[in-house]
Design goal:
- The chain starts with 19 loop residues before the first helix and ends in a 7-residue tail after the last helix.
- The longest helix has about 60 residues.
- The protein is built from five helices and no strands.
- Helix 2 packs across helix 4.
- The chain is mainly alpha-helical.
């Protein structure tokens, strides 16, 4: 059976291999790994585990006979010091990388919040202008009482005009 992937096709060239660093850039795996490492180091369980590890290390190398000690107490535990220094030398840059990623996310979030605030301000200003325009239009708009009063005045004028036109005219 023939496979369907591009590697088995003879009429198409194989894809170019991406460099090692490009793999991390594309999917950001390394950044996610540093964040999970930083999250793990910031937990009480990590501190408890490191404390137990160091405690067992020190206890064994203190109580064991000098021939069975793999990190001699007489030399002030050089292997433990080396291991902890190595762990710290890797932890510091990884923590900084994770912090930089968080700073980048915070920067993006702040920019989105700023844009949202600008839109809200523009919408609020627009609505305020519309409310003012409606209030001005309402002031110019005739009320029912005003229209009734005008109609009464017109009716009274018409009644007066009718009353004067019914009088007989002299002359002719």
């Amino acid at each position: 059976m023939a496979r369907n992937d591009n590697n088995s096709r003879m009429d198409a060239p194989k894809g170019l291999r991406t460099p090692f660093t490009a793999r991390f850039r594309g999917r950001d795996r390394f950044g996610r790994m540093t964040e999970s490492f930083a999250r793990g180091m910031g937990t009480p369980w990590f501190l408890l585990g490191m404390t137990i590890f160091c405690g067992l290390w020190l206890t064994y190398n203190t109580l064991a006979s000098p021939g069975n000690q793999f990190d001699p107490e007489a030399q002030k535990f050089p292997l433990l010091t080396l291991i902890l220094s190595l762990q710290a030398s890797y932890a510091a840059p990884l923590l900084l990388l994770a912090q930089n990623r968080q700073d980048d996310r915070d920067r993006v979030q702040i920019e989105q919040d700023r844009q949202r605030a600008e839109r809200n301000l523009a919408d609020t200003e627009y609505l305020a202008r519309e409310v003012v325009a409606l209030r001005l239009a309402m002031k110019d708009m005739a009320s029912k009482d005003f229209i009734r009063g005008e109609l009464r005045t017109l009716l009274e004028e018409l009644d007066r005009d009718k009353g004067t036109s019914k009088e007989p005219t002299s002359g002719g």
